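User: I'm curious whether this sequence folds into something compact or stays loose and floppy. Could you predict its structure so I can see for myself?
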Amino acid sequence: MMATGFRICALALALGAAMVSAGATSAAAAATAEVAASPDAVGFDAARLQKLDKALAKVVADGRVAGMSTLLVRHGKLVDTQVFGKQSLATGQPMSRDTIVRIYSMSKPITGVAMMILYEEGKWRLDDPITKFIPEFKGLRVISGVDDKGAMITVPVTRPPTLREIMSHTAGFGYGLQDNNPVDHMFREKRVLAADNLPDLIHRVADIPLKFQPGTDWSYSVSVDIQGYLIEKISGQKLGDFLAQRIFQPLKMTDTAFSTGTAKAARLAALYVGDEKTGKLVEPSTLFGGGVPDYVNPPGLESGGGGLVSTLGDYGRFCQMILNGGELDGVRILAPRTIALMGTDVVPQAALVKSNGTASQRFGDSVGFGLDFMVMKDPLKAGSLEGKGVLSWGGAASTWFWIDPANDLYFVGMVQRLGGTGGDDLGLMTRTLTYQALIHPEK
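Assistant: Here's the prediction. I'll summarize afterward.
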């Protein structure tokens, strides 16, 4: 499959135009970064970088995803951007850099930045107990086992979770994305993720036991939706309004919100899942135990943990702001030390080893978790070519990103397939293919 992406040559830069194989320019990419004179100018070998492009094209050609768009930026300069496949298989509409996608858990770092805006204003501290702001959590209990009838046995919390633990998934809350734990089963039973609004979500969570005593383990959780409620309570604004006023509008992330609205609805990509029998891509009829939101109309529940839609260019601007130490185009969102704090592993070593991290990255000496970002502490020991201190995460529809301060680069990948992409993890694959092409990192 041929890419509609482009690589910039020196002549194109001199003319002030990005040459695309389809003959069009990308407003989203141009707004995100100045184009590099050549890959070599920022340390990349152009021939080796083609391995990345070919691998991405093959993922789409093999039918693993319907469409894909990617963005690689170094030193604030656009190195490579690619677009493959379809935004919708039903209509045949091609994927574009302006296609709006559901970023799901890539909402989490954005919510984390919103939390840190309030942190810088002195509104909360990392070691504040959650009960200081959410008294509904004063009666939290912890599962200690199940009886012979399968009912949960619980004990009181030794202390309330802290906001540091809320932001690092060590508070003990469940999520319900899977059903392999009695706590997660209860999240599904109470349909927490289908709550009417954030106060309703808090009400439902308050009656569910924690998975473990706060600070003793790591478990991916509903805690970023709890952060969304905290932002509303501390700021006195709706979460969506706070994000728009304090992050999206200042950063010119014009297509990032909790819904597209009718004017932009045609740009929203279709969502897919692999059919268990045929393996072919089909649109899901249910999602997380409930219906599939349309993402066109404003939702009742503004989910800071997974409810935002965005575009390749918009999320690139967010990544560049983080990479710049909290500033972009003269607009400062956070202080450099605050960004450094978010990228510092805050999880106790014993908890990281006990939890063993995620399916694709194992926690321990080399990989940890900061404040709403996963943190790469020792890439070579982890078996990766990326730089030390990389911040990253991904979304349920297989979107991914990483931000590499050591090499001054970021990468964003947008697809729309739930449950993985039927093969190699795209986040890990693209890391290897990106860094094998970074031959001269000193440039």
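Summary: Residues 209 and 257 are 32 Å apart (CA to CA). The two ends are 32 Å apart (CA to CA).
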